[in-house]
Amino acid sequence: MLLPHKGTFLLPFSYNDNPNRRPYRESFDQNLFNERGKYVRNVEAEMQISFLILTSKNIFGTKFNTFLGYTQHSWWQVYNEGWSRQFRETNYEPEIFFRRVFDEENRILGLDFIGYDLGFVHQSNGQAQELSRSWNRIFARAAFVVDRFVLTFTSWYRIPSSGKTPDDNPDLYKYLGYGNLNIRYSIGKSNVGLLYRIGEKYQGVDLTYSYPWKEGIRFYIKGTYGYGSSMIDYNNRAETIGVGISLADPLSGFLTNMEGQAKGI
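^ that's the sequence the OP posted. Answer follows.
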């Protein structure tokens, strides 16, 4: 059974005020740009699929359940006919983690601490040479609830590259730091979200809004500001706005997953 994870959405229209063209200019022959025009145009489509699979309950006789997760996030230059409407960037993010959900109430600073995850995640863009971006992390993720708010805080440690493997992005910590904060808030039928990327020197924010349209489908608006929106763009500052639909709401899905585990479902 597939469970919702970080959100599944489609934005047919997404505008980027400062697309990152530098990596492509450094990787392709300049004559191609003269013939075909810009490789990255300001308007594109953006999409993501993200899900979890529960693989085992009460592993080794503990109160931890084991999950496999997968998130794939793509940016599609669907309006760029000169370059055959290419997918300019796709980020692949498989993960495995152990989840512990508390049976009893745990109050911390006025928040209900409902559970936490411990796991490993790999993230890369599947490219080679100059366009390659990847990293591996060990992470801990804690979830809190208060009234209509759901807060998840994730911290991580990046596993260093081995001596035989070149580091594609040694300055990631400057832009993505050691964790992020995700806040979701429900207002009637509307859901509002904020993802804050806490870099050592630079930061980035994603803002989202969704409202029911049909059963299982929501109107969806997503805006970003700052750094770290994708692997290829982690060190590029940009502002984006996109409109479309969401097929799996991460707020209700997260609560359903947590509540279901607490009840032994």
